[in-house]
Amino acid sequence: MKKTIYKLLIISILGILSSFPAFAQVAIEVTFPEDRSKTALDGRLLLFIATNNQSEPRFQVADEVKTAQVFGVDAENWKPNQAMKVDATAFGYPIRSLSNLPQGKYYVQALLHKYETFKRSDGHTVKLPMDRGEGQNFRTAPGNIYSEVMEVEINPTSTKVIKLSLTKENPPITPPKDTKYIKHIRIKSEKLSKFWGRDMYLGANILLPHGFEEHPEARYPLMIYHGHFPADFGGFRETPPDPNMKADDYSERFKIYGYGKIAQEEAYNFYKMWTSKDFPRFIVIEIQHANPFYDDSYAVNSANVGPYGDAITYELIPHIEKQFRGIGQGWARFTYGGSTGGWEALAVQVFYPDEYNGCFAACPDPIDFRAYTVVDIYKDKNAYYQEGSFKKVPRPGKRDYLGHVACTLEDMNMRELALGTKSRSGDQWDIWQAVYSPMGADGYPKPIWDKLTGEIDKNVAEYWRENYDLGYILKRDWDKIGKKLEGKIHIYCGDMDNYYLNNAVYLVEDFLKSTKNPFYGGEVTYGDRAEHCWNGDPNLPNYITRLRYNFMYVPKILDRIQKSAPAGADLKSWRY
After folding, report:
1. CA 156 – CA 98 distance, rounded (Å)
2. Domain 182-367+471-564 listed as CATH 3.40.960.10
3. Cα separation of 518 and 531, whole Å?
4. For residue 131, which phi and psi values (nearest 5 degrees)?
5. Distance of alpha carbon 347 from alpha carbon 357, whole angstroms
6. Which of 225, 445, 558, 566 holds its CA 20 to 30 A away from the CA of 92?
């Protein structure tokens, strides 16, 4: 009797549920035609949903509140004309599931970020998005296929299937042309090729000194500007600003109009300074080291990204110095940069203390993991929340100089997870993880924390500390490397850095000021209420000084050369 009642009850419940709309069945089906690929493809299928058509939806996803929506699905062996479904099970940001999207009219677009198969020398086979000359950007990566933008009505409670076809393809990147002053090189790296199991390359944009051809006897010091992928050498303009350029463009970041014209003026002023009679003659290089994880490698050796530190220091830089008459010795090499470049400038100075004679690290990415932005990866249990017995508070991810928070740390990680699993988003938190983490059993980076929950893996944190925590390494190894770093470390950071990077600088400063035998002999300075990219000038705003990296440290570099060059060093051939 009871069994009969239970059966009737179940049948009744199923009947009631069947009368409701198929709540979780809303779906978008995506295909690609054979004229886009006759073979199966791997990658990350991304679906973008926007409320406006001011730009294509693929360009509207961001950490901030005005972001578009994105959903992501891994594509494995996806064949032409085969439908891939994006439905309620696809992971999304900022809304997690398509079933929770409010009903309404939207602009939608789909894109496949293509992956390639790497058979690495360590025995692992992994699928990753190879950089194709664009600087690891899924939006513009050559060969990525995408759909037209379509205006559609989306009703999460509808079973209607929306269909998109990836009929368009990003074109190849046109390489920049050499000029009298700017040259471009690309070399095969034996070290990286061995690691990745295929030919891998390093590149550089090179600014030659004025009078290079007229002074064949000269040998030059080298200034290495670290930073994100540079398509061409930036901030150097041989002609005056465009007189027809209007000053009505608005920079949301700096809250000013006419920033494009300001940038042109600064670039032309740099050219005039560079070619002036009394300006010292240097070679300046910007390194191209985009890789399958990010737009640059962080310029260090890594279990997941490869031996980029050795490849840059022992392959690329000597090649440039040989071809363009660099002095080719550690006392004549200097590193500088901001943000990612700031971390790199300090890291290579610490890891290769004899190969460089000074670093100028501005607004560096976290240089002490006790302040990994706002997380202490050694003491905190969760990266996303401060947790008490009865309450938990989200950790902020980005702020302005007044302290207004634009997004949480969890927001930033959820966006990356939608863009790519296994550290394949091509973005900030994933590249930190790829560079700093040990390799996991599957051949991909071992997570520092669970991307969904924020729970920190203490074993991974310990690996980070021993290998990449610059503050810890400086303290641990000062007896061995302190003498080699004396007078070489210069750090600059705004005390209202948008990403809380000043927190780690405070910790490293505390150690540096305590050093003895030797005293570190450098400088650490802060910009009052200055945001990200502050690089050491207390008298000018960020939006100007960030355009002056290539000459603002020159007086300090010259002073360092005079004080530290070895006996018999060439201090004259490059001072014409």
Report:
1. 7
2. no
3. 32
4. -65, 140
5. 13
6. 445
Q: Which helix (H) or strand (E) holds 302?
A: strand 301-302
Distance set, CA 347 to CA 287, 353, 530, 535 (Å)? 15, 9, 23, 17
Tokens 């994006």 — which residue? 86
Instruction: Label residues 327-346 b or e (16+ Cβ within 10 Å = b).
Output: bebbbbbbbbbbbbbbbbbb
Residue from 154, 48, 30, 22 nearest 101 by CA: 154
pLDDT confidence of residue 229: 96
| pLDDT for the residue numbered 159 | 83
Helix ranges (H only) for 307-357 are 308-311, 317-323, 340-351
Query: Are 325 and 310 within 8 A, CB to CB?
Result: no
Q: Which two tokens stand for residue 347?
A: 């890291």
What residue spans define the domains of the chain?
2-169, 182-367+471-564, 370-466
Instruction: Report the greatest alpha carbon distance in the chain.
Output: 105
Phi/psi of residue 481, nearest 5 degrees: -115, -10
Q: Closest Cα to residue 223, out of 336, 96, 147?
A: 336
What are 367's two structure tokens?
A: 């240089």
Neighbours of 62 (CB within 10 A): 13
Q: State the pLDDT at residue 525.
A: 98
pLDDT at 358 over 90: yes
What does the pLDDT look like over 222-252, one tens digit per residue? 999 999 999 999 999 999 999 888 888 899 8
- Helices of type H across 301-426: 308-311, 317-323, 340-351, 409-419
- Do the beta carbons of residue 111 and residue 58 sit within 8 Å? yes
Secondary structure (DSSP) of 58-117: GG---SSTTPPEEEEEEEEEEPTTPPEEE-TTSEEESSS-GGGSPSEEEEEEEEEEEEEE
Integer-rounded Cα Rg, in Å, for the chain is: 26
Please report which confidence band the pLDDT of residue 16 belongs to, taking 50, 70 and 90 as the band edges. very low
Tokens found for residue 566: 């070895």
Q: Which two tokens stand for residue 167?
A: 């009929």
**Average pLDDT of every residue of the chain:** 94
